[in-house]
Structure formats: C-alpha cells, structure tokens
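Reviewers asked in the last cycle whether our approach scales beyond single polypeptides. To address this, we selected a multi-component target totalling 388 residues and predicted its structure end to end. The input consisted of the following lines:
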Amino acid sequence: MIEATPETICKDLGFHKDYIDFTHLRNTSIHFGVNESHDTGNHVKYFNSSKVLIVTDNGILKAGHLDPVVNSLNEYEINYEIYTNVKENPSTDDVDECVEFAKNKSIDLIIGLGGGSSLDTAKGVNFILTNGGTMHDYRGVGKATHEMLPFIAIPTTAGTGSECQSFAIISDSASHEKMACGDLKAAARIAILDPALTTSQPRHISAHTGIDAISHAVETLVTKKRTDDSIQYSRLAFSLLNRSYEKMVNDPNDLLARSDMLLGAAYAGTAIECSMLGSAHASANPLTAKFSIPHGAAVGLMLPHVIKYNSSIEEISELYDSLSEKSLSNRITSLLKISNIPSKLGDYGIKNESFKDLANEASGQWTGNFNPRQTEHADFMNLYESAL
Ligand SMILES: [Fe+2]
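The resulting structure, written as structure tokens, was:
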C-alpha cells in the first residue's frame, strides 16, 4: 500500500507546491491513491447525483475494474446505468449509440472508466445529452452553450492524459477524420487516479501509452503556445515518467512506478491543454492511419528526429537540455529499445516510396502548427528519411 500524495511523490524531484498546483489542474480536481477508485461513491455524492451513467468497455469489465466503482456506488445507494460498448478510437456513430442508450434515463452525472477511448466517448455523450445536435456541432473550441453534466474520469491507462483535458477526440464515421471537440465545460470535474487499475494492462500497451505520455511531456515543453505554467507541468511530467518508465516495463506490478506513470500522464495532459503538441504527433498520425502503427509507438519513433530538427533553434535546444543531462533524443531512443518498440520505419517495412503521401498527410495536421520550428512538406520528407 502506498501512502503518498502527489506532493510527496514529486517533492524529491524538486517540484514544490508553492509554484505548481499538484491537485487542482485547471478545472479538474485530482484524487490520487492506490484503491482510490473504491471511494468513487463518496466523490459522486458531492454532486448530489441521483442517476450515474458509467461509460466503459468490455475489457475493463473482464479485468474487474468496474467492481470497485459499482460496489462504492452501491454503498452510497447511488443509482447507475452501465454502458460497456466503447470502441477503440471512438467514432460519431459510437457516440450516438451511447447517447441512444443514455437518453430518457434521467442521467445527471457521467463517469468515464477506461483508456482514452472511454473518456472521449463519455465526453462526447455529455456534449450531446446536454446541448443536443451531433458531434460535428462541437468541433473546435467552446461550442457548447448550455451547462454540461458533471464528469468524473477514472483512467485505467497512463497515456493520453484525457482525464485532464477538455477535448474529446471523435472520428467522423464517414470520412474517418479525427475531430477535436473542446470545451472547458467538458473537462472532468474530478479525476480519480488509482494506480492499481493500471497494473492489468498487457506489457506492450503499457509501453506504448507510456511512450505517448513521454512524448506529450517533450512536445508540450517547446510548442509555440507554451507558457511558464505549461513548461512546469511538462518538466514535472517528464521527470516522473522518465524515472519510472523502465521500472514499469520490467515490473508491471511496481505500484510506485505505476503511480509516477499515472501522475506523469495526467500532468502531461494538463500541459497539452495550454500548449498543444508538435511535429512528432503530426508526422506520427499518418503512420498510424496508413500503417496501423500504434499511436505511442509511432510518436516515439518520430520524436528523436523532431527533437534534432527543432534543436536548430537555440532557445528550444536549451529547453530540451533542461530535461536531460545527456542527449534527449538518445534517451528517447533508448526508452524505445528498453521496451522493444521499433525505432526505425524500416522495421515496419515502410519504404521511402511512401514518404510523399505521408508528408502530404503530415503537413495537413493541425497539431503541426504549434511546433516551434515551421515544418513544411519537404521538412516532413526529411524527417521520414532520417527515421528510415
Ligand atoms: Fe499522443
């Protein structure tokens, strides 16, 4: 049993409460601790909810992670409905199906339990239940005009940081285009971070999502939109993730390492809220779309090359150096090796004849606009060449 708070976990890293808020990230209060999910009913009670919608998937059900949440709601005599059909990379059709399930059930609070897909689906359903229309109406930022239901996020992976973000990423069912639908009202009011929920993941999923979180920490540190606050969250996130990634890969049941990873992912997610992402995500997204490379593996593969590319700007190079005494790009490559994630495009059978199409897609990615160094089509071609 770990008796620790975010403050005590972060203190020895040199991060102190007088200049960084560990427990209230923008709109979201953090409740952290091993078995914290067993107290879900107590958190729900705070909102005087009479009927909760739990949005999750069958894998979570089979892993038994729903049990402590439901047991706690029963303990507090709170009614609930459970939707277990969340799909990976949720689409507009997937959100509509969950809305159909939930409507006319007098839902007054939503719990998202699972990975980023469950949390995004829960946010999407909240938009439509409270403001009507379709997900397309909420594309962009701040399109919801009515208040939204209180949302409690309970992540079971340390990766996207969706629990600390106001965006739902939902893909258009027809075009498969990913839509970012953001509104501060959609952010979780409470994030319950229970490291015990993350130990059941297959090792390769923990590795992919962990590298994704590390990439969030590194990319948010340097974007054009970075702020003094976001830089603090990026640094804190990287420190936690960097010190525990290898331990987590070697011993999936190491709860201290899992704690660092879960907190680190949440802080990196907080940094994304202010700072957005950069060209590692812009160049990785087409690799996932065209070659089905898992998101974290694709971003991790491209990140060392984007670090080198951005390092031509002295100020950016100094920011990278603030994370790591040795070469940051080498450190990322070594983290990939530790967890058997390929570090070259050739390892996936990708050849340079694909680079033109990939660069076309990459240069159209919204997220690339925030990269500190302008990245044009020819630059993406060079980045893919260097990653071959
Ligand atoms: Fe990511």
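The mean pLDDT is 94. We regard this as preliminary and will revisit it once experimental data from Aim 1 are available.
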